[in-house]
Specification:
The chain is of the alpha/beta class. Helix content is about 25%, strand content about 30%.
Length: about 850
């Protein structure tokens, strides 16, 4: 039955429309002659009609010109033999013999041709253009084979590659597949021992550029055709970093080593694989630039960053330490630094321009920032809603969670006469005094507190009084009563700040809430003495202080120092209408309980380069600032509650890292004795730093797949970030033999100058790029012969070609005798149908005469 359907499917009618004649022929045959045969016996009558129906049908089918295309075995084949340096003469001879045997197996009507290829391809008959030796260009072989194949529908087109599959030119073989042509392959036989090294170094990878103190990976890829024992040695300059025997199994083996760059200049990584007397060697040069320069910013001159600065210096970074207030208003003034570390610094300690400087430093200049937490960072530091918060890979808004303890909030409000001056607050307020806005701020703050929180409000001028005595809020009525009392504050006389602060502190001492905070709102100056003593007593009592300076007449220096030493935040505004918003923000920070204290175990959340080479558990922390993770950011470490501890992301051209706990002190004091602490902090900072090349003059030197083609390129930008065009750009290339030559790089794109050249010597080259007064260096290395660094069969590429094109792996020459995908020549059936009709006509005459 299957054979029948195969025949039916192979049948084709050239004029199928002729079959419509059957609708006329059947009635004419059955009705018209039947009138004349009424006297004829029924059996003879039926026989005559049957014969005439068959004859008519045969004639009509003959008019349709049916053709039969049965499956055939004809093939159209091009054999492509690899004669590059990666195949031996024995393998090439074996391939030629395999082709001859296969041709003898092909069915009649098949067509064949043979080409040989290395760095180019030509027909095997063109002996004058022999491509023997050199690199391997499978794409060139596929392109030539595709042009040689005849486009005959009677034969199945196919290209058969006899190669090891190691492409060593830049042309992708998959892009060269001829459409509608199957590409198959034949695996070349394994080399006999002793003919060629059975194991080689396939690739050696190291970063082209690094900084002093950077750790980097050296990756050695080995290939073996047979199980062998070999000796591997790896050098970094003159130092052996790895040496030992290795047993290699057939296939690929990857080995990696982590090393540190210690000296600026040109360095070389060299790997040797010795197998008997054969040595496979590759070299990878590294340009080592000076250590990164890092600016450490902190909120004050205390010792919070001391331990971190010492650790980073010991890890080879050049560290400079400044106050956060010294941040310039323009990012260009930070051009000498590769990165900034912000240590436990409140956003309110930075002006808007200074925050924008840090954003531009990362986003536009491509530099790095590491933000380290503490009691004055993230949410406690007032980061929410600032451009600094936009910069971070975490949101400073703490996650909404159940209240973790009550808050005792004390508001100390200036009621001096200057606070009653009307200000132009806009149409919304109709002009409101600073005192009116301060009352409104206090009323809103009271409304944000939770049950079991405590509120106390003091108003002061030259004296003070408790407007709202310390009151624990247990119901909405308590809140309403406190708000009504706040509304009664009236303006008074002068200003004396210290006594009301002392009173608020004493009240906080008597309160059992775990979080005790004072907010001071004033527009004046005070000649009081003794703030240092008060703040010294507040710190061990865990009472914090934030200040709001209203107007330029306020003692901004005093108030900023009070907030800094009091562990809170400092705010400044010249618009009274902003007072309620600032106070609400401050109260929200407090009521959200961003600070989480207690034993915290860091948990690895996502793979991160910052944690590279760090094994074992990280030391426990004593606390952190709760934040919310952002999309696109990598959360490398988190707490057991799922809060981010270490997160990082790409921001514009640069990178930002956030650490939500302390650094080497306070909450992270246990890290002082951790052996990997220096490694951790160094990697956190170094990951954020830009590549150690000039961002406005970036060099590029790359060796092509053939090991000889070299591309030299430079991308040039101006100070304004625009491409620099039409400049005289040159490169001085120092060869392995010490000779130097200067070449000109023509412009190939906006700001891009590129030259493709060839390296004739084996070894390391050094390149000096120069454009005007700007200079940069690079290095590259050329191998002895790229073809000698591959063994075995690149089955992945060959199977991909076969799978994509519908080809196969040919096991032996006899496989060519199997049916192909093509078809044999068509057979016309109409002559045979016409002959059958003519043969039946005498039968019709004979039957009629019998009637």
């Amino acid at each position: 039955m299957s054979q029948f359907w195969l025949v039916v499917q192979s049948l084709k009618l050239e004029h199928a429309v002729s079959l419509w004649l059957l609708t006329l022929a059947v009635p004419l045959v059955l009705l018209v002659p039947r009138l004349r045969l009424r006297q004829t016996a029924h059996p003879l009558q039926a026989a005559i009609l049957a014969v005439r129906l068959v004859v008519s049908g045969l004639l009509i089918l003959a008019l349709a010109e049916p053709r039969l295309r049965p499956p055939g075995q004809a093939r159209a084949m091009v054999f492509a033999i690899d004669v590059s340096d990666s195949t031996t003469p024995d393998q090439q001879q074996w391939a030629r013999a395999w082709v001859q045997q296969t041709k003898q197996q092909l069915p009649p009507g098949s067509w064949t041709d043979t080409l040989e290829f290395a760095s180019s391809a030509q027909r095997a008959a063109d002996t004058a253009l022999s491509p023997a030796g050199g690199s391997t260009d499978i794409a060139a072989a596929l392109h030539l084979a595709g042009t040689l194949l005849p486009r005959d529908s009677n034969a199945a087109p196919e290209i058969v590659l006899l190669t090891d599959g190691w492409q060593t030119t830049a042309n992708p073989p998959l892009d060269a597949l001829p459409p509608g042509v199957a590409v198959s392959f034949v695996a070349l036989p394994q080399l006999a021992p002793g003919i060629r090294a059975a194991a080689v170094i396939h690739t050696l990878s190291a970063p082209p550029v690094a900084r002093v103190g950077d750790t980097f990976d050296i990756i050695v890829d080995l290939q073996a055709a047979l199980p062998v024992d070999a000796q591997l040695r790896v050098w970094l300059d003159q130092t052996v970093v790895a040496s030992g025997p290795m047993h290699l199994q057939p296939g690929d083996t990857r080995i990696s080593f982590t090393q540190r760059a210690d000296i600026a200049g040109f360095s070389e990584v060299r790997a040797d694989l010795q197998l008997g007397s054969d040595v496979s060697r590759l070299i990878s040069p590294i340009v080592v630039k000076p250590a990164g320069r890092v600016l450490v910013l902190q909120d004050d001159a205390n010792t919070q960053a001391d331990a971190l600065v010492t650790v980073l210096g010991n890890e080879g970074l050049v560290v400079e330490r400044r106050s956060a207030a010294s941040v310039p208003p323009s990012a260009s003034a930070l051009g000498d630094f590769d990165g900034v570390v912000l240590v436990n610094t409140a956003a309110t300690s930075l002006s808007l321009d200074q925050q924008r400087t840090l954003v531009s430093f990362v986003q536009d200049m491509g530099r790095g920032v590491l933000v380290i937490g503490g009691s004055r960072a993230f949410s406690p530091g007032g980061y929410q809603g600032t451009v600094l918060d936009d910069l971070l890979p975490v949101s400073s808004e703490p996650p909404i969670e159940p209240q973790q303890g009550s808050l005792a909030l004390f508001l100390v409000i200036d009621r001096s006469g200057s606070m009653d001056i009307l200000t132009g607050g806009g149409s919304a307020t109709g002009g409101a005094s600073k005192l009116a806005m301060a009352r409104e701020a206090a009323i809103e703050a009271a409304g944000l507190l939770q049950p079991q929180d405590t509120i106390g409000v003091i108003s002061f001028d030259t004296s003070f009084q408790w407007v709202v005595p310390p009151t624990r809020l247990s119901s909405p009525d308590d809140v309403k009563r406190a708000q009504a009392q706040i509304a009664t504050i009236k303006p008074g006389g002068g200003t004396s700040i210290l006594p009301p602060l002392e009173a608020a502190f004493q009240a906080a001492l008597q309160n059992g809430a775990p979080l005790k905070h004072i907010i001071l709102l004033t527009d004046g100056e005070s000649n009081d003495r003794g703030y240092e003593d008060l703040l010294a007593r507040m710190q061990p009592a865990r009472v914090t202080l934030s200040t709001l300076a209203i107007g330029s007449d306020a003692d901004t220096r005093l108030l900023s120092n009070l907030a800094r030493l009091g562990g809170g935040r400092y705010y400044f505004t010249e618009r009274s209408t902003q007072i309620p918003r600032i106070a609400s923000k401050e109260t929200t920070i407090l009521t959200r309980n961003a600070v989480v204290e207690g034993r915290v175990a860091p948990v690895v959340a996502e793979p991160s380069p910052i944690l590279r080479s760090i094994s074992g558990d990280l030391p426990a922390l004593g606390g952190y600032v709760a934040t919310t993770r952002k999309e696109r950011a990598i959360t490398a470490l988190e707490t057991e509650r799922g809060h981010p501890l270490l997160a990082h992301w790409q921001f514009g051209l640069g990178r930002v890292v956030a650490w939500t706990s302390d650094a080497q002190q306070g909450w992270a004091s246990a890290w002082q004795n951790w052996s990997d602490a220096g490694h951790f902090w160094s990697q956190a900072v170094r990951w954020s730093l830009p590549a150690p090349v000039r961002s406005d003059f970036q060099p590029f030197a790359q060796v092509g797949p053939d090991g000889r083609q070299v591309t030299l390129s430079i991308e040039s930008l101006g100070d304004d970030g625009h491409f620099v065009d039409l400049q005289d750009t040159r490169a001085t290339v120092l060869g392995p033999d010490g000779t130097a030559r200067e070449v000109t790089l023509p412009q190939t794109a906006p700001g891009v100058y590129t030259l493709d050249t060839r390296a004739t010597q084996t070894g390391t080259y050094r390149v000096l790029f120069k454009q005007g007064s700007r200079e940069e260096v690079a290095a590259f290395s050329t191998p002895d012969s790229i073809e000698q660094h591959s063994v075995g069969l690149n089955r992945a590429l060959l199977e991909s070609l076969a799978r994509t094109s519908g080809g196969q792996e040919w096991p032996n020459p006899t496989a060519a005798a199997r049916p192909a995908n093509g078809q044999a020549p068509a057979i016309d059936l109409w002559p045979w149908l016409l002959l059958a009709a003519l043969v039946l006509l005498p039968a019709d005459v004979f039957i009629r005469r019998r009637s």
